[in-house]
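<discrete_fold_record>
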Amino acid sequence: MSFSDAVRREICTYITDKDKRFACLYGMLLFSRILTPQHICFQSKNETSAETFGILFGKVFHHKLSCRESVGKNGGKLYIYDISEAELAEAVIEKYRISEKTRQINYDIISTGSLGVFAAGVFLACGSVIDPEKEYHLEFAVPEQKLAEEFISLLSDIGVAARSAVRRGQTIVYIKGSEGIEDTLTFIGAQQCTLELMNVKIYKDVRNKANRIANCDSANIDKVVSAAMKQIEDISLIANNRGLDDLPDELKEIARLRIENPTMSLQEIGESLSEPLSRSGVNHRFKRIAAIAQEIRMAGEKVEGR
């Protein structure tokens, strides 16, 4: 079951009383494909949404509708309810006070406590949400631009920032970001799905943090190895040209430790000295060794330049 299907199933479980059925069906009708006094067409690719529309319509209008199945453009099933009986279509338009000129949300016919159920109907009609494991994205394919603007305003009233775009001639109202999606799912009654999304987000945050730490550790290891190789190169140059015995005792000891332990960190080398030394102290001694090696290189360059 997809995450969108889980949301649909959850919100359908609590549409149980008269006011909720009325508000939810209003959302489904207002955002349906065709809505005129002569013809109403509700269609969905989702069986749960289609079944819910038929049940709610029967409860509100005491009329059983027939659902027909068709094949969509992508080859999937399409569930369609056509209301072409003039008397029935007019009854729907009249009961929900739907304007013949333009679709708009009539807040006067929805009780304040049922606004979330109305939005649930909108989701059932034209909403979808991507699996949060992949991406945070919730959208509604709205039939008219004006209606999209009104729905964005409704979402804004609950603190959700939604935007609109046109995709293949279709107006899309979309929400990005986990918090906005969480608030919207909670508003439409999908609290369990909200909790699931939050759990996914926590898991992803922890995983990302672990990856960052691992990457940081890897970078630090690379840095340590690179520094150790440079130190060994300097020590080998001194050994081949002057011999390590030419070094002061404190540098000789640290040089031999590095040659014998190429993977040791500065702190570990410091702790292994006959007289333990801090990390910065060890680093200072390696800088002295590097300076001596550089002197040898410079002398070699002068010789080569003669």
In short: The chain has eleven helices and eight strands. The first strand starts at residue 34 and ends at 35. Residues 191-241 form the longest helix (51 residues). Confidence is low (pLDDT under 50) at residues 301-306.
